[in-house]
What we know:
Blueprint: H1 7-11, H2 18-80, H3 86-114, H4 121-135, E1 137-138, E2 141-142
Antiparallel strand pairs: 1-2
Helix pairs in contact: 2-3
Amino acid sequence: MTDYTDPVKQARPRKRSLFELIADVPRLVTELVTAEIEQLKAELVAKLKALGIGAGLLAGAAIVLMFMIGVLLTAAVLALSLVMPGWAAALVVAGVLLLVAAILAWVGYLKLKAGIPPLPVDTIESVKRDIDVVRGIRKGGIS
């Protein structure tokens, strides 16, 4: 005689006790943390690779732009050479470039001077005031 048992009962795993489930928690937490770290690594590698490719393409675009500026300057010299000698046209374009460079350098110098010293002075003073308030010290003396 063949034993016909319920196939649903055969497929069910045995029920584990509460102590067995609690004993598995550290292993499950470790596996979860390990899986999360691996996912983080994979995501960071993909993003850093995309950043590297993007930065390389931007650098290539900047180089092509520099060549384009050279061509435009040459075109300016050639256009001016139609109304004056070529050497004078080149000197005029060079003079304009020198003037633009001097203005940019002056503005840059002023911005650098405004940023010296590179310390967050206002924030430091604010933190000192906050510490004094926590300590109970006022400007006029101890409260």
